[in-house]
Every structure is written in C-alpha cells, then in structure tokens.
Amino acid sequence: MMSIRLRLFLILVLATGAVWASAVVWTRARTEAHVERVLDARLSEAARMVVSLIADNSIDLGAAAGVMEGAGTETAFAPAADYEHRLSCQIWSVEGGLLGQSEGAPDGRLSSNSSGFSTSDVDGQAWRVYTAEDPDLGIRVMVADTRAMRENLVGSIITALVLPAGLVLPALLGLIWISLGRGLAPLDRVARVLSNRSASDLTPLPDEPAASEVRPLIEGLNGLMTRVASARESERTFTAFAAHELKTPLSGLKTQAQVAAMSPDPATKDRALAQIQKAVDRTDRMVRQLLDMAAIEAEVAEAGEHPASIAPLLADVMEDLASLARVKGVALHADLKESCVLQCSRPLLLGTAVRNLLENALAAGPQGSEVTLTMHAVEEGRSCAIRVRDHGSGIPLDELALVTRRFVRGRQAEGAGSGLGLAIVDLAMERLRGRLSLTRAEGGGLLAELVLPCLSGHVGPAVPDLQASPAK
C-alpha cells in the first residue's frame, strides 16, 4: 500500500502543477491581450503619422511609405534583430490604385477595409492591419504586422517566465519531499517506540509534547493498551480461578472412582457412583458457565442473532429448566402475561442471564418451595423489569455487594456451586446496558431484578402462565 508520505507528495506535486499550469494559462491569456492592445496602438499611431506627414506636405508618398521601413526595430519585448522589418505599409488611392509601399510589404493588398482594424491573409500569411483614410487627400494608409510575429512575442514572454521556474522545479520537489519527512517525523517516532517494544510491554506511550494531529493517535493507542492490559489481567485471573475450581471436582471424581473400583461393598459403590454423578454435574455446569463467561466477556454475538420478544424467550428458558425443577422438588412458576411484548437487542445474552438466575434460585430453594419469574414494562415501556424470587436462605446483607464477583459464594449458599452464576448475570447486564439488583425478599429468600432497556414494543398475544410442579 502507498505510504502516507508518498501519497502527500503526489498530492502536493499535482496541486502545485495544477496551480502552475493555471498560472501559465492565465498569464498567457493576459499577455496576449496586453500585447494585442500595445501593438494595435502602434499600428494605429504609425498609420496616422504617415497620413499627417503627407497632409503637411512634409514628405511625398514614396518617402512616406519608406518611413515604415525598419520601424519594427524598436520594441521592449525582445532583441531588435528578432523583429526587424515586421511593420509593412501600403498607400492606396481611394479609387483603388497603389501609390506606394514599404520594402518587404506583400504584393497583395493588405486589407479590403476602408478604415479601422482587420485581419487578412495575404500571400499565405496572416496580417493584422490598421487602415487610416483621408478623404481630402484621397488616400488610404495601411500599416500591418504579421500574426506570427505577435505569437512569437507572446511565446518569448511566456518562455522567459516559465523556463526559470522549470529549472527550479527539481529543487522545489526536493524541498517538498524533505518537508513532508520532517512533518511526519512525529509519526515515525511513535512507530520506532512501538517497534522496539516487546509484546508484553503495554505501558502507555510517553506523554511528551506532540503535534495536535498526532496527540489523538497517541491517546487512542494508550487507551487501547490500557484495555488490552485489563483484558489480559482478567484472562489471567479467570484462568487461575477456573483451574483452581476445576481441580476440586476432578480430584473428587478420581477419589470416588478409586473407591468404587476398590470397594467390594455394593452400598459403598453406589454411594461412590452417586458422588461421581454429582461431581460430573457440578463440573458440567462449571464448564458451561465458564464458556458463558468467556463468550460474554468477548462480546461475541451469535451468528444470525436478531432482536426478539422477551416474554417468549423467558418462556423457553422456563421450559428448558422444568425437568431440573421437578428433580429438585421445587415448583417453578412464571407470570408472563404482559400484553406489551418488549424486545431485546441481544436475546441470547439475556437468556443466559435469566437461566443462571433461575438455576441459582432452584439450587437455593428447599424441596417443596417455589421459584417465581415475572416480567413487566417500566419507564413507560422503554425498559423491562424481570424478577426472580426464591424461598431459600437468602444472602446476608453484608455479602450482597460481593456475590457478583467471580467464584465468590455466600456463607449460606446451598448446594455445590462455583460462584460464577451471579457474576455471569452481572456481566451480561453490563453488556446489555442494564443493571442487576439483589435484595432480601420479605418472608425469606432472595429477590433478583434485571432492568434493561428494550426496543420498541408492540401489543401481542399474551404468553400463557408456565409452571413446573415439584415431583410427587
């Protein structure tokens, strides 16, 4: 890809060339107009001078024509030798007879006009002619110069202007190239600093005085390094916690497998196998939660994910967890008869959050209790509030602000959990620009509320009340 320096160089060269060419065209046009006025004035003055001399009887007709011989030697535009014998004069009678002409004048009549300026082609050459008529003397004096002489004169002036500029052009291009190099030097310094760094060095770039155009780049790079450093730290912490938490169930699996293999007692084997099943279930949930956490942190949207109505989404989650509720002996109820079917921009993310809340509630609720899920619109339909209520032991007040941290479990937590469920919910709400609030419910248990902004809703069919009764 073309470098910025080369691109700017070409742009400046093209712009300079365009301005230069425009200046040459404008100068040529102005010079042509000025030369035309000056030389036309000279023709007019010369013709009137000849008529005046003849009228005053200061010179005869033949001598009057000879006056113009060599008159073109005086010019301020170029050496006289280039323009000698460029003026020609003819004196004609009004009846049409040639009375006299200067040496070098064409044989043909210079102009057919009786007076004033004209352009004519005589003997294959273009002439600019001024005709002065004196009816009293009965003569017409024609003074002319060639168009070629005028064009050569204009060309000489343009050459005198352009040639020095053309000789300076290489120096100008060099200065532009050097100037661009010095102007882009701050970027080169930033590039050198970055190229000399190791992959693990994520410290901010030096906060030194920099050009206003470079400062946003440095600030953006420093911000990126800060985010990358934070992400790497989170990844290291996450990996360490995950390894620690997986170590315990895997060790338990190994121990129980050895007990089952070595024990001759069927009852001991059955207990060992039951413990193995529990450890597998715990490990399975932990792995799934780790995957959920990783996906949410990476903010990876599922392919083909589109905004979806919230109520049917919650109903699907309830249906998926119905069998788990029956196994736990907990009644699972959902009140989703909300006529305003709000929509969520990231339904899979919301589904993950609600699933973890419900799994935690089912794990915390004692056998024979119930877990309820409700949804309603708030803030005039701009947001949605989703509530999950259980009747477990709840969370002490001093731990409510801590349980959303990773791998943190409350003192009264029920069952074998990993401490990731509420952390996943909190992170999902952060990605959805919502919030998670946890409060102790009246009568015992925990009330978890998710409030998130929603897309425009529409009035749709009510979602039927879903419930999973505990196993008999």
Task: Walk me through what this model shows.
- The chain is of the alpha+beta class.
- It has 3 domains: 4-168, PAS domain (Beta-Lactamase, 2-Layer Sandwich), CATH 3.30.450.20; 195-300, Helix Hairpins; 308-468, Histidine kinase-like ATPase, C-terminal domain (Heat Shock Protein 90, 2-Layer Sandwich), CATH 3.30.565.
- The chain has 9 helices and 14 strands.
- The protein has helices at residues 4-55, 61-67, 147-183, 185-195, 215-262, 266-298, 310-328, 347-364, 421-431, and strands at 88-93, 98-101, 116-122, 125-134, 139-146, 308-309, 331-335, 340-344, 370-378, 383-389, 435-440, 446-453, 455-459, 466-468.
- A hairpin with a 4-residue loop joins strand 4 and strand 5 (139-146).
- Helix 5 packs antiparallel against helix 6 (266-298).
- The relative contact order is 0.07.
- Its main location: membrane.
- One of its GO terms (molecular function) is phosphorelay sensor kinase activity.
- Its EC number is 2.7.13.3.
- InterPro entries: 2CSK_N (IPR013727), HAMP_dom (IPR003660), HATPase_C_sf (IPR036890), HATPase_dom (IPR003594), His_kinase_dom (IPR005467), HisK_dim/P_dom (IPR003661), HisK_dim/P_sf (IPR036097), Sig_transdc_His_kin-like_C (IPR004358).
> Which architecture name of the largest domain does CATH use?
2-Layer Sandwich
User: What's the CATH topology name of the largest domain?
Assistant: Beta-Lactamase
Tally of individual domains: 3
Strand order of the largest sheet: 11-12-10-9-7-14
Shape: rod-shaped
Terminus-to-terminus distance: 72 Å
Q: What is the CATH C-level name of the largest domain?
A: Alpha Beta
Low-confidence segments, given as residue ranges, are 69-81, 458-464
Please state the CA-atom Rg, rounded to the nearest Å.
50 Å
Going by CATH, the homologous superfamily of the largest domain would be PAS domain
- How much helix, percentage-wise, in residues? 40-55%
User: How many individual β-strands?
Assistant: 14
Rounded mean pLDDT is 78
